[in-house]
């Protein structure tokens, strides 16, 4: 018997499982997001710095596989942001997730169109600020996550955010199965978001080299780039990421670090991993939980197994009444 969580947002969206596939620039395609929503979770298209036409194309690709609601994760710093929001509204998208940046200038307009807004937050202060501005939920993301990260771990961050705000809190970072999901619920989360787990799904369209690297990764196979020069990101250890960290050490010892050179090195590198599978130039963004993932599975199986395992564990600890 599956446990039901009290999350009005998920109820409104008609989700079967309280599980979100986190937006992932390049990797979170319309096909993947649509497949997750079709299977009963919430898929989110990751659009990074794409222009509005590319966003529309991916939204339509998601619609080819589902009639259910799905979300779009926007990059607020993108120079296409206005046109991107126009497309999101025109296409009738129901959920907008945001990474770095403040979504509040767009909040009223998005709410007028019935769009749920869910920023990702790495700290209590940001969660409180977002609640005050009127967002509908927050995703508390720990530094175990793949991609750009804050500094707190999920285990410490989630309960503190839960205590600090009165809106639903979704836990993200280091969750890969029903055990992690049940643990997040125990910490007070009313849903989870996974990214790395969905990279290794049949419906994920990332290059085979990237998928294989996630499946083969051990617990110690991720590193954080940007520790010294900023813009921290968790990626798999590759020739590229090791070189990046070496260059960072060299740059930081200079009187004035050449941030431009580092930006150049990072720019476009996620695309090189996702599309070309190139380990010399690609940033294979993935989280610490990659070590737990041993197989590429259909998203329907990932969702079903994760939630039935979590439900079993939660029922054992809560009792059946
Ligand atoms: C390849 C990759 C790309 C990502 N890109 C984004 C992004 O563009 N915007 C964002 O808010 N989060 C991004 N994330 C974070 C995910 O949405 C999600 O919160 C995270 O992966 C959860 O942690 P996990 O990897 O341990 O499951 C990315 C993660 C990965 C693995």
Automatic annotation (TrEMBL):
Alphabetical list of Pfam families matching this protein: NMO
InterPro entries on file: Aldolase_TIM, NMO
Sorted alphabetically, the keyword list is:
Flavoprotein, FMN, Oxidoreductase
User: Listed GO molecular functions?
Assistant: nitronate monooxygenase activity
Q: What functional role does this protein have?
A: Nitronate monooxygenase that uses molecular oxygen to catalyze the oxidative denitrification of alkyl nitronates. Acts on propionate 3-nitronate (P3N), the presumed physiological substrate. Probably functions in the detoxification of P3N, a metabolic poison produced by plants and fungi as a defense mechanism.
Write the protein's name. Answer: Probable nitronate monooxygenase
């Amino acid at each position: 018997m599956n446990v039901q969580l009290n999350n009005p947002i998920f109820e409104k969206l008609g989700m079967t499982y309280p599980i979100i596939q986190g937006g992932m620039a390049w990797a979170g395609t319309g096909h993947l997001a649509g497949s997750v929503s079709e299977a009963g979770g919430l898929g989110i298209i990751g659009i990074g710095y794409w222009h509005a036409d590319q966003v529309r194309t991916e939204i339509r690709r998601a619609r080819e596989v589902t009639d259910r609601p799905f979300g779009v994760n926007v990059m607020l710093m993108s120079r296409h942001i206005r046109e991107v929001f126009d497309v999101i509204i025109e296409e009738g998208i129901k959920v907008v997730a945001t990474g770095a940046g403040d979504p509040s200038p767009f909040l009223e307009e998005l709410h007028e169109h019935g769009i749920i807004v869910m920023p990702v937050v790495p700290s209590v202060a940001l969660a409180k600020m977002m609640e005050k501005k009127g967002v509908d939920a927050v995703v508390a993301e720990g530094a175990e996550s793949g991609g750009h990260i804050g500094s707190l771990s999920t285990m410490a961050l989630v309960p503190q955010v839960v205590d600090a705000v009165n809106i639903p809190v979704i836990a993200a970072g280091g969750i890969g199965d029903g055990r992690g999901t049940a643990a997040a619920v125990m910490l007070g989360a009313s849903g989870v978001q996974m990214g790395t787990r969905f990279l290794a799904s049949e419906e994920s369209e990332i290059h085979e080299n990237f998928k294989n690297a996630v499946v083969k990764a051990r617990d110690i196979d991720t590193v954080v780039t940007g520790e010294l020069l900023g813009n921290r990101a968790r990626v798999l250890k590759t020739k590229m990421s090791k070189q990046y960290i070496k260059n960072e050490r060299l740059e930081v010892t200079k009187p004035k670090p050449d941030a431009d050179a580092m930006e150049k090195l990072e720019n476009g590198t996620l695309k090189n991993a996702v599309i070309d599978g190139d380990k010399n130039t690609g940033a294979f963004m993935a989280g610490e939980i990659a070590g737990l993932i041993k197989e590429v599975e259909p998203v329907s199986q990932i969702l079903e197994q994760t939630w039935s395992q979590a439900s079993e564990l939660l029922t054992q600890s809560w009792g059946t009444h």
